[in-house]
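PROTEIN DESIGN WORKSHEET
SECTION A - STRUCTURE
LENGTH: 259
TOKENS:
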């Protein structure tokens, strides 16, 4: 399918690896020029060079912490006008309700709620002026069905979801869509971290922890970067103009719900 976005420019956050990289690869394959952001300069430049060589699109790499005022300002200044925004940031650490204090919640909200909101507010005027724009926020399956040990993430991402629900309907008349993409377990460093905690807590091996988690997924596997990137690219495409304020769950059927 021709996604109809060749020649557009996208800012993809946390895109040196993991789900953000999957989105960047799929957008580049569709002919989109990219501004990539991540904290680690070495991994980021490696990804940027890989995408340049594979897809012959323009790629600018900006190493910065997108969750800080200074980092955001730097990235947005280098990016200039963009047509597509993919927000993404690492999730807060797992734990129990008794582990978290006010500062933990503030940090989670800053990274996973207020950072994407600030980026959205920064790019919306330009998108609305030109009458076209796509914003996809990478959140979590926990927005639909909370995960007990991820209470910090549940809280912050639910706040972002509420913001998007209202804002997306205000900007849709201007040709701009805002939607959320909710990953379940994918083969990323985050999955390794979660499996490692399970292995440490229960005394089993990493392979056993992964196999046990895969058994809870109807697809019987972890998602891939290709799975995730293809879905993100469609949500950024010309064909997704009637998709407004939606939460697209991509979890291999792991979240057991009717709607």
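SECTION B - SEQUENCE
RESIDUE ASSIGNMENT:
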């Amino acid at each position: 399918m021709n996604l109809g976005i060749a020649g557009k420019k996208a800012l993809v956050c946390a895109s040196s690896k993991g789900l953000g990289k999957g989105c960047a690869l799929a957008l580049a394959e569709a002919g989109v020029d990219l501004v990539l952001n991540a904290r680690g300069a070495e991994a980021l430049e490696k990804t940027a060079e890989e995408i340049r060589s594979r897809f012959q699109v323009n790629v600018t790499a900006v190493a910065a912490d997108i969750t800080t005022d200074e980092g955001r300002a730097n990235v947005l200044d280098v990016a200039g006008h963009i047509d597509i925004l993919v927000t993404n940031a690492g999730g807060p650490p797992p734990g129990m309700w008794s582990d978290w204090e006010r500062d933990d919640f503030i940090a989670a909200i800053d990274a996973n709620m207020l950072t994407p909101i600030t980026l959205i507010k920064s790019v919306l005027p330009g998108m609305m002026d030109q009458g076209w724009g796509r914003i996809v926020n990478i959140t979590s399956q926990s927005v639909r069905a909370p995960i007990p040990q991820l209470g910090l993430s549940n809280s912050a991402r639910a706040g972002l979801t509420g913001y998007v629900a209202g804002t997306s309907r205000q900007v849709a008349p201007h040709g701009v869509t805002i939607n959320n993409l909710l990953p379940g377990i994918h083969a990323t460093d985050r999955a390794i971290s979660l499996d490692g905690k399970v292995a440490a807590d229960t005394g089993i091996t990493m392979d056993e922890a992964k196999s046990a988690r895969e058994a809870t997924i109807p697809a019987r596997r972890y998602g891939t970067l290709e799975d995730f990137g293809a879905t993100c690219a469609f949500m950024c495409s010309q064909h997704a103009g009637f998709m407004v304020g939606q939460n697209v769950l991509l979890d291999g059927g792991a979240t057991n719900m009717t709607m």
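SECTION C - NOTES
Helices lie at 18-29, 41-55, 69-79, 102-130, 151-171, 189-202, 206-214, 225-235.
Residues 51 and 166 are 35 Å apart (CA to CA).
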